[in-house]
Amino acid sequence: MTAEMLSPTTGLLRGRVHLLPVRVYFEDTDAAGIVYYANYLKFAERGRTEMLRTLGVEQQRLREETGMQFVMREGEVKYRRPARLDDALTVETALIELGAASVRMRQVIRRRITTPKSVAEEEVARFTAHVACTGLDGKPMRLPTRLRNALEDYVSEA
């Protein structure tokens, strides 16, 4: 297999929700083998980025073509259960609001639990992320029309 055939996973859309699989590696955990709290934020960031990529929005190209970038304006996280080394997680990302110059997303990270008789999932963390659109100078900037059009059909209820 050549390097040209390899590409990172971008997850998939199921309806209006983006699903991104994430495996917990040793580097994600603390000394007790539990995911370090800040790493959930990294998993959520990957989920938001890959949802946009799945919808045809590559952030670097967006910056180059429009001078617009996303910055985290506000975030809320609730930790429910610990995830551990080797767990298979799914980051669910949904757009819940488009503002003139911002996007609000809801994210849930679930852990797959497999037993000999069943497969289930439990929630390990829940996020609400409010990202602002700014120019490269950091000043607020309206969502470009092309971006708004790409996102509008995927906004779901909170």
Concise account of the structure shown:
It contains 3 helices and 6 strands; from the N terminus they run ββααββββα.
Can you put this structure into words, describing what you see?
This protein has 158 residues and is of the alpha+beta class. It contains 3 helices and 6 strands. It has a 6-stranded antiparallel β-sheet. The radius of gyration is 17 Å and the shape is elongated. The termini are far apart. The mean pLDDT is 92.
Would you give the CATH topology?
Thiol Ester Dehydrase, Chain A
Termini Cα gap: 43 Å
- Give the C-alpha Rg: 17 Å
* Helix content bin: 10-25%
pLDDT averaged residue by residue: 92
Name the shape in a single word: elongated
What's the number of extended β-strand segments?
6
Largest sheet: 6 strands, antiparallel
Topology:
Layout lengths: L11 E3 L2 E7 L13 H18 L4 H8 L1 E12 L8 E11 L3 E13 L4 E17 L9 H8 L6
Antiparallel strand pairs: 1-2, 2-4, 3-6, 4-5, 5-6
What features would you highlight for this structure?
single chain; 158 residues; alpha+beta; Thiol Ester Dehydrase, Chain A; 3 helices; 6 strands; elongated
